[in-house]
Fold this sequence. Notes:
By secondary structure, the protein is of the alpha+beta class.
Amino acid sequence: MAIPFTCPHCGHRTAASEAYAGSSGPCAHCGAIVKLPGAKAELASPGKYLVHSGVVRSRGKGLNVLSVVVLAVVVAACGYLLFPAISTPREASRRSHCSNNLKQIGLALHGYHDQYRVFPPAFITDENGRPMHSWRVLILPYMEYGELYKEYNFDEPWDGPKNRQLMEQCPPIFHCPSDEGDKNSTRYRVVVGPGTGWKANASITIRDIADGTSNSVAVLETLRPGRNWLDPAPLTLDEALSPPQEQTDWTSGPRFPHLNGRQAVFFDGSTHFLPADLDAEKLGRLLLINDGEEIPRDLF
């Protein structure tokens, strides 16, 4: 079998018998001493071998890059598909935590009622009608925050020099874990207005709730931005039933505190999830304490 060979000196191409593989001798064209290839791996010229080797290595790199790209796409796709499965349990945990917060608030309201035979007022005003102190401060002793209550100064407004130092000491019970805003803010609000259970400088009793404590909302998660926990600013009935003006992006509708809804504690101390599709009319009935209307429980 003939061995193809190219002289490295003159470039002349020829063929030699396989019997001479690995031996040296003069080139038939230029006479220079050359050595014939002695193994199959040497049949190709060094230049061709390097080029071939380079192609193999290039292909190897190309495959590696392609593999990384494909892997990244697969991981991203899996993350996209698994995100709901991961986020839903987290939200369920936050929602449960929020429900427990509201339940503690409900118990504190009843603790206040047990002592004074009335629920606390929505807020206390000064002689000019300016809101001074919130219902949240009034129930602190019934939430194991008696020491914090003692630090509060009722002789100055909620944002006075001394009380201002307490603004960053919000009890975790007042902050929903799903709320990514300021940890010292709260979206747990009471609704003040004709027919609701909350008034300024005035209180109601359980007997005043003609619709029944289990049918009337006491504290509601609002769709509006949170306020500092000491802020006694009221939430009116109109504000509670209308979309928040602060929201600018309406592509997905109103932003609810939780996935597909929000939570509330009723005057009997029970907590309920209010779905996003609960319309304003039905929500309004839940906020009124003596309208004679009862909302079916299958709606929330």
